[in-house]
Model the fold of this input.
Amino acid sequence: MERNKIDVEAFVYSKRHILTTGAVLLLLAVPYSGFSQYIIRIMIMVGLYIILALGLNVLTGYTGLVSLGHAGFFAIGAYTAAILMLKLNMNFLLAAVISMTAAGIAGLLIGLPTLRLTGTYLSIVTLGFGEIVRMAAMNFESVTNGTLGLRNIPRPVFFGYQLTLANGGLYYLMLALLAAVTLACLAIKNSKLGRALRAIKTNELAASMMGIYTPGCKLAAFVISAVITGLAGAYYSSLVSYIDPNSFTFDISILILSIVILGGMGTVRGMYLGALILIVFPEIARPLMEWRFVVYGVVLIVMMRFKPQGVLGWRSSIPYRIPDEKNA
Amino acid sequence: MLFQQALNGLALGMAYSLIALGYSLVFGILRLVNFSHGAVYAFGAHIVIFLVGFNFGLAPAILFGVVLTGLLGILIDKLALSPLRKKRSPAISSLITTIGISYIIQNLLMMGFGSEKKPFPELFGNKLLSVAGAQVGTMQLVMLAVSILLLLSLTILVRFTKLGLAMRAVEQSEAVSGLMGINTNFIIGVTFFLSGAFAAIASVLISGCYQIVYPTMGFMVGLKAFTAAVLGGIGSFHGAIAGGLAIGITEALAATWFGSAYRDSVAFIILILVLLVRPAGLFGKKGIEKV
Done:
C-alpha cells in the first residue's frame, strides 16, 4: 500500500509537465464544451475556495497558526473592492490590488499583537477579529449600507469587454487568479521564507535557535495569507455582485479551515482536492443539504483522529531539491 | 441608571462565571480550551425546552436536562478527545476537534429544533422589586442566588472532599496522580460532567431571564465566558468568577454608553487587551505555558 503510493507519486512527478499541460488545456476548454452555466458556476466557486484555502494554508498549513477569522480578511477584500468599484467606478484590477493591500494591512494589524500567542489563544483572537469585521460591516451604514448590503457591484471590465458568466470571462478570470496564486504559493513554499515557516511549525524554539527571526516570519505569513484572501474577496464581490455582512460569517472561516485540513495542511495539491470535495459534495447531495454543516464538523473530527496530515498530505518520497547558495 | 445597569450586569456576570468555570475546570486538568463549550451551553437550553414539553413538571425537566448535558460533556471527551490524548496528538488537533464538535452540536440542534428563536418557559414570573431606586427582576435575583450557591458548593467540593483532592492532584500531574492510585479517567470524566452541568444551569438561568432560545445562542455567550476565564486567569477558580462579573458589568455599562449594537464587541476588545497586557490573567499562575 505504502509502496504503491510512492510509485504513483514518482510517476506523477516524472510526468508532471505533460499532466499539468493536459489539466490546463482541459480547464481552458470548459466554457466551450457545452456545460450549463450552473456547472460553470460551481467550478468557479471551487476555484474561489481553492484560492481561499491556499491563503489560509500559508498560515495554518505552513506556519501552524490556526486562524478562525479568515472570513474577516475575505470581507475586507470584498467590501473594499465593491466600494471602490461602486463609488469610484474603479477598474477591477486596480480595485483588487487596493483590496489586497487593505487585507494585507489588516493582516499586519492582527498579526502584530498575536505574535506572542499560539494555539487556541491565537485562534480565538482571530475569531474575534472576524466577528469584529462583520459587526463593523453591519454598523458602518454610511459606507457598507449595513445589513442591507451592497447591490449591483459591477462585473470586471477589461479593455471595454465585460466579463460575465455567460461569455466565460469570469471563469477565465478565476483560472488566471488561481494560477497566479498557486504559483505564488509554490514559490513561497520552496523559498527561504517557506522553509523558515515550516521550521516554525515543527518547533518554534528550535527554529529561532537556527537563526530564524520568527516574529518577522510569522508576520509575513499573516500578511501573505491575508493578501491572498483579500484577492479572493475582491473577485467574490464582483462575481456575485451583491454582498452583505451575512456573506462572511464564522461558517465561511470553518469551511475554509475544513478544506485545508481535509486536503492536507501545508500541501498545494490538497487544497484542490479539499475544495473540490467540500464544494461539490453539497451540490450533488441536495437532499443532504441541511446536513452539510454537520459533515464539515465530522470531517474535522475524523481527520484529526485518523489522518491529521490530510488526504493528500503524505511525506513526499521525492528528494528535496536543495537550492543554490546564491538564490537560497 | 448607572446602578441599575451595574445590577443587570452583576446578575448576567454571575451566569457568565458559571460558564467560565466550565472552561477553567477543563483547562486546569487537560490544558485544553474546550471550544465546544458554547454549543454544550446551547444544548442545555434546548434539551430543557424539549423535556418541559413532556409535561412532567419544570423542576424535574431542568434537573434531567442538566444531568443530560453533563453526560454530553463526558460523551464528547470519551468519543473525540480521549483518543487524541492516547495518541499524544499535538494541541492543534484537540483544538480543531473541539471546533468540529461545537459545529456538529450546533447544527444538529438547528435540524432538530429549527433555527428560529423559541420562547423559553417563564421560571418564576418576573415581578420587579425596587432596590435602592433600581428595578430588579425576580429572575435576576434567582440568577444571583443560584450562581452563588453553585460556586460555593463547587468550592467546597474541590477544597474539602476526597474527590476534590483527586481533581487537584490530576490538575498538578496526571501521570503522578495515576501512580498514586487515582483513577484519572474517572476524574477527567467528572470534570467534563461538572463543566457541562454548569453550562446547562447557566443556560437555564440566562434563557429564563431573556426567554429566548436558539441553536447559535452559545456562540457569543461561549466567547464571552471564555474571555471571562482568560481575564480571571484560565484554570483559576476565583479568577473565573471575577472575570465573569467584570465582563457582565462592563458589557451592561458599554451597552448604556455606546449603544447596544456594540455590546458584543466589548468582550473581544477586553480579550485582546488582556492577552496583550497580561496573558496570565488577573489571578493566573505564572509558569504554565498557555500562550
User: Anything to note?
Assistant: The CA atoms of residues 255 and 261 of chain B lie 8 Å apart.
